[in-house]
Amino acid sequence: xxxxxxxxxxSFSLTSCYTYQVKKQPxxxxxxxxxxxxxxxxxxxxxxxxxxxxxxPPAPVNIQEKLAPNKNVKIDVDxxxxxxxxxxxxxxxxxxxxxxxxxxxxxxxxxxxxxxKIAEKRFSQPIADIITVTVYxxxxxxxxxxxx
Length: 148
Prior knowledge:
Elements: H1 2-13, E1 18-22, H2 40-55, H3 63-66, E2 72-77, E3 80-90, E4 93-98, E5 105-109, E6 119-123, H4 125-147
Antiparallel strand pairs: 1-6, 2-3, 2-6, 3-4, 4-5
């Protein structure tokens, strides 16, 4: 029983409520707030506008804005994933250091970084809720075991 209790305590101490999540891009398409009317001219006009909006490429993502100094992010560079803390930008190069090794300085050119896979470190409420419920259940089981 004591071995299992130690194992549970160690597993909870290693669990983090923070995860790396890719920030969703805002929807740039325009919404038609008026309801569709049954006139044929307006219907053709609306469908043409929707085709034009769909044909437009998505707005370019500015990597330098996404990777501001002191941000804790996970980036994908040439197929390899790095967890870094951004230090600064030097011209077109990102200067950062590894999360778990602050002495290791990393430099990446902005063309090497995959802008679609930049994930910011954020608090995850579902994981925190799962940990809380599990801890309460563990405390309940511990009290029950002590009483019996």
